[in-house]
Automatic annotation (TrEMBL):
Residue ranges of every copy of the ABC transporter domain listed in the record: 8-233
Protein name as it appears in the record: ATP-binding cassette domain-containing protein
CDD domains found in the cross-reference section: ABC_DR_subfamily_A
Organism, scientific name: Sporofaciens musculi
Signal peptide per UniProt: none
């Protein structure tokens, strides 16, 4: 597949639910080999954005290009190159860890070694266990590992480390940093600003479906006059005022 300069380009994306705009003319550009963070309070529109980019939800207006291709028209070609983090409920109730990994690996032309991925994510001793029997944090780590089985060029990680303990979060960060160094582009959402600061090259802060900040962590601090990124985030997203 021809390599595009941008991993993702979104122009004028608008999504309406029940007559209400939950995404309002969103523009994004994610460069290859970078980590991009989409931020915002609960309900700001982060998951909807990912769904519209992937073409699993239809936007009323706007376009999204993924690796230079239209996900609506070239889903099969993109499927091989794009990983998406699993969400609760995406798996069969009785399936074991090894079975779900095997099932996913079978779908791809050149999958990564899923046993090695499970080892790296600290669940190498859980392969025979049922997915539903894993702890919340173990399951979250499995869901990230599953997104990496395709050996993707681009991965979408929604609520990256929700439910993980401090050590597991650091392990996940390190793995993602290593994969970025190998050229992986990462699109993530997170409610943890230390994580965003550690990982993201650029961020977009959404408020009620509109961009209220777009740029680097340093630019966010500068423009807000805040020393800490978390304070800058709260200022832009107005979470403090809303609370
Ligand atoms: N299928 C749907 N039908 C109606 N409204 C929806 C639907 N899916 C999402 N919404 C609404 O769209 C808005 C954006 O939701 P979305 O899940 O994208 O937010 P989010 O930023 O990912 O939030 P969170 O941080 O809580 O995951 C919310 O107001 C939500 O209630």
């Amino acid at each position: 597949m021809r390599k595009a300069k941008e991993a993702i380009r979104v122009s004028g994306l608008t999504k309406i639910y029940n007559g209400k705009k939950v995404l309002d003319g969103l523009n994004l550009s994610v460069k290859n080999g970078t980590v991009f963070g989409l931020l915002g309070a609960n309900g700001a529109g982060k998951s909807t954005t990912i769904e519209c980019i992937l073409g699993t939800r239809r936007a009323e207006q706007g376009t999204a290009l993924v690796l230079g291709r239209d996900p609506g028209k070239e889903r099969r070609a993109l499927f091989q190159k794009v990983g998406v983090q699993f969400q609760e409920g995406d798996y069969q109730p009785e399936i074991k860890v090894s079975e779900i990994c095997e099932e996913i690996a079978c779908l791809y032309d050149s999958p990564s070694d899923w046993r090695e991925l499970c080892e790296r994510f600290g669940i190498g001793d859980k392969l025979k266990n049922a997915v539903k029997s894993l702890s919340g944090g173990e399951r979250q780590r499995l869901f990230i590992a599953l997104a990496l089985i395709p050996a993707p060029e681009l991965v979408f990680l929604d609520e990256l480390t929700t439910g993980l303990d401090a050590k597991a979060r650091r392990t996940v960060w390190k793995i993602l940093e290593d994969l970025k160094a190998q050229g992986l582009t990462i699109f993530l959402t997170s409610h943890f600003m230390d994580e965003v600061e550690a990982l993201c090259d650029e961020v977009c802060i959404l408020k009620k479906g509109k961009t209220v900040f777009y740029g680097t962590i340093e630019q966010a601090k500068e423009q807000s006059g805040c020393e800490k990124f978390e304070d800058a985030y709260l200022k832009f997203s107005d979470e403090e005022a809303d609370a």
